[in-house]
Amino acid sequence: MTLDPHQYGTVHTFGAAPEVALGAVILLHGRGGSAEDILSLAREFELPQLAYFAPQAAGHSWYPNSFMASVASNQPWLCSALNKVESIVQMAQDAGIAADRVAVGGFSQGACLATEFVASHPKRYAALFALTGGLVGPPGSDLAHQGSLAGTPAFFGSGDPDPHVPWQRVRDSAQVLESMGAIVNVKRYPGRGHTVSSEELAITRELLRDAFLSK
User: Fold this and answer.
1) Which of 28, 56, 72, 176 is most open to solvent, judged by the fewest CB atoms within 10 Å of its CB?
2) Separation between Cα atoms, residue 163 and residue 181, nearest integer Å
3) What is the spatial distance between Cα 38 and Cα 36, in angstroms, rounded to a whole number?
4) Which CATH superfamily groups domain 11-213?
5) Residues 6 or more apart in contact with residue 53 via CB below 8 angstroms
6) What are the residue ranges spanned by the domains of the chain?
7) Which residues face 27 on adjacent strands?
8) Which of 94, 167, 163, 96 is nearest to 134 (CA)?
9) What's the pLDDT at 215?
10) For the segment 138-162, what is each residue's pLDDT rounded down to a tens digit?
């Protein structure tokens, strides 16, 4: 077993070339999904001025067990996944896009990865959007992270009940990021299935418009 299973995963792109883009959006797919699937959201956002990056997870999964399993049971995949996201942030910075012009988001397992990345690599980002996801760790664990998100706008949206992501974890994660200085919007969708709603897409679109077009 490689210690860095996601290191050489392909990064799919869409939109503007990074060197001329207004900013960058990192899109993280869910378990069993693909970079191509999640990259289709870029068209929904209707912001062609941005550079979109969607990495492909090894075996179509960022880590093998539930995001609420012990952290150790999801290694080295989780650490490798976080490193993969960090490498894309660095890729954007190398092209002249500062971290505060980089948004990170995803769906389900990808939303969990996006949330954990932003919390564990704290700084001012353009935005975070977690579509059915939350911070990684078993029930009862301390989800707190150190550092400041310095006003990073964040959106958490999830159905309740959800078969994979308990609503309480979504709320707890939002509170942790808020305590770190993020400006958080949380939306609960009673009875909605494990999917992304049109309202969530609209909220995310506006989040990105505010982040990149209002400056």
Assistant:
1) 72
2) 30
3) 6
4) Alpha/Beta hydrolase fold, catalytic domain (3.40.50.1820)
5) 11, 12, 13, 24, 25, 26, 27, 88, 91, 92
6) 11-213
7) 105
8) 167
9) 60
10) 999 999 999 999 999 999 999 999 9
| Six token digits for residue 144 | 């707190």
Closest CA to 77 of 90, 91, 59: 59
Q: Which amino acid is at 28?
A: L
Tokens of 106: 């995803």
Residue in this structure with the two tokens 């200085």, named with its chain if needed: 181
Residues 6+ apart with CB under 8 A from 59: 5
The DSSP annotation for the chain comes to --S-TTTT--EEEEES-TTT-S-EEEEE--TT--HHHHHTHHHHHT-TTSEEEEEPPGGG-SSSS-TTS-GGGGTTHHHHHHHHHHHHHHHHHHTT--GGGEEEEEETHHHHHHHHHHHHS-S--SEEEEES----S-TT------S--TT-EEEEEEEES-SSS-HHHHHHHHHHHHHTT-EEEEEEEET--SS--HHHHHHHHHHHHHHHH--
pLDDT, mean over the chain: 97
